[in-house]
Amino acid sequence: MRFLLLLLLTLPFFAQADVCSPLLDYRHTALRSSETVDFCERFRGKVLLVVNTASQCGFTPQFEGLERLYQDYRERGLEIVGFPSNDFRQEYSEAAETAKVCYVNYGVTFTMLEASSVRGSAANALFARLEESGAGQPRWNFYKYLIDRDGRVVTSFPSRVEPESPAMRTAIEGLLGN
Questions:
Q1: Domains of the chain, earliest start first
Q2: pLDDT tens for residues 148-170?
Q3: How far apart are CA 120 and CA 72, in angstroms?
Q4: Bridge partners, residue 113, by sequence
Q5: Tens digit of pLDDT for each residue in 72-92?
Q6: What is the DSSP string of the chain?
Q7: Annotation marks residue 102 as catalytic
Q8: Is pLDDT at 125 greater than 80 in this prediction?
Q9: What pTM did the predictor assign?
Q10: Which residues form the active site (predicted)?
Q11: How far apart are CA 79 and CA 138, in angstroms?
């Protein structure tokens, strides 16, 4: 009887552990792939850096810093997701060109997705939720959103903030803990 009572009392805890944050309840096709990235499945319990990218932007070299961040912190639970977007008219219309810039020119190994809109009424569901959460819309390419392990937006960084800046590293390290 005690075991049954204990089981009934702990079930809500275990059930809650499998609940996905509404922000991460999202799926998107990976860049140049038929794979669908399920954010709940892949990123639950991780610190997540979401970045809207563009392959023909003055900030495109930030891919190098993003990749270094990923290499430095992925073992501790950091994931990075790039969302190519032509909202600012600086992304290739062909996914093959975008993939070449990311994978060949910059050696990106973090998750990159197929191009989508990240602003306004056409924004994909994740970016619409980021705006609804109070984090705002990207003002330009390479706007960065930092999301904690519970799927809550912690802060955002404008395009001019370099991925390896002390402010960004401090924020990431604070969320990763030991």
A1: 30-176 (3.40.30.10)
A2: 999 999 999 999 999 999 999 99
A3: 34
A4: 30
A5: 999 999 999 999 999 999 999
A6: -HHHHHHHHHHHHHHHHTPPPGGG--EEEBTTSS-EEEHHHHHTTSEEEEEEE-TTSTTTTHHHHHHHHHHHHGGGTEEEEEEE--TTS-S-SSHHHHHIIIIIIS---SEEB-----SGGG--HHHHHHIIIII---SSTT-EEEE-TTS-EEEEE-TTS-TTSHHHHHHHHHHH--
A7: no
A8: yes
A9: 0.89
A10: 57
A11: 19
Q: Classify residue 158 as left (phi > 0), alpha (psi -120 to 50) or beta.
A: beta
φ and ψ of 63, to 5 deg: -55, -35
**What token pair was written down for 141?**
């390419």
Q: Which two tokens stand for residue 66?
A: 């993003």
Nearest-angstrom CA–CA distance, 49 and 84: 14
**Cross-strand bridge partners of residue 19:** none
